[in-house]
Write a structure and sequence with these properties.
single chain, 153 residues, mainly alpha, Herpes Virus-1, two-stranded antiparallel sheet, 4 strands, Znf_RING/FYVE/PHD
Length: 153
């Protein structure tokens, strides 16, 4: 379901003629009179002097048959807003992935440090046991067994 939504959003921010994403510059999304949207670059490439036929529905858009007058088409702000939101969401997702990677690294480092500490603790315990068993009188096996039980060995 999420993939469908992402694809739909990508279609809304992409010129269906050149298949490039809209932007604030030469690929600014422009509404034709029929409400279809194309980028400014494609508009400039397919327009005639006074008219443009919509590449999707063939509706004619005119500038009033005045050659000297500049074409004034409204910008599709909705497409630009969606594009900004998508970029923000992508940035947030990248930040979250970075934070998760840092957390995993920290956890691994802590785990390694604890493992090293545990090994040192085990070595120290083993040295203590060895010292204690060396000091035990092993001639009396009953006392020796009691000592081992006492030290949980």
């Amino acid at each position: 379901m999420a993939t469908l939504s992402v694809k739909l959003l990508e279609e809304l921010v992409t010129c269906n003629i050149c298949l490039n994403q809209y932007d604030e510059g030469i690929r600014k999304p422009k509404f034709l009179q029929c409400s279809h949207t194309i980028c400014l670059e494609c508009f400039q490439a397919i327009r005639n002097r006074y008219t443009i036929a919509c590449p999707f529905c063939r509706t004619s858009t005119s500038n009033g048959h005045i050659y000297e007058i500049e074409w004034i088409l409204p910008t599709n702000q909705y497409a630009l807003d969606i594009l900004r939101l998508m970029r923000t969401a992508l940035k947030v997702e990248e930040d979250n992935q970075f934070i998760a990677a840092l957390a995993m690294r920290y956890c691994r480092e802590m785990e390694e440090a604890l493992d090293e500490e545990s090994v040192l603790d085990q070595e120290q315990e083993q040295e203590q046991v060895t010292a204690k068993t060396d000091s035990c009188d092993t001639s009396n096996s009953e006392t020796f067994d009691q000592e081992l039980k006492y030290w949980n060995l």
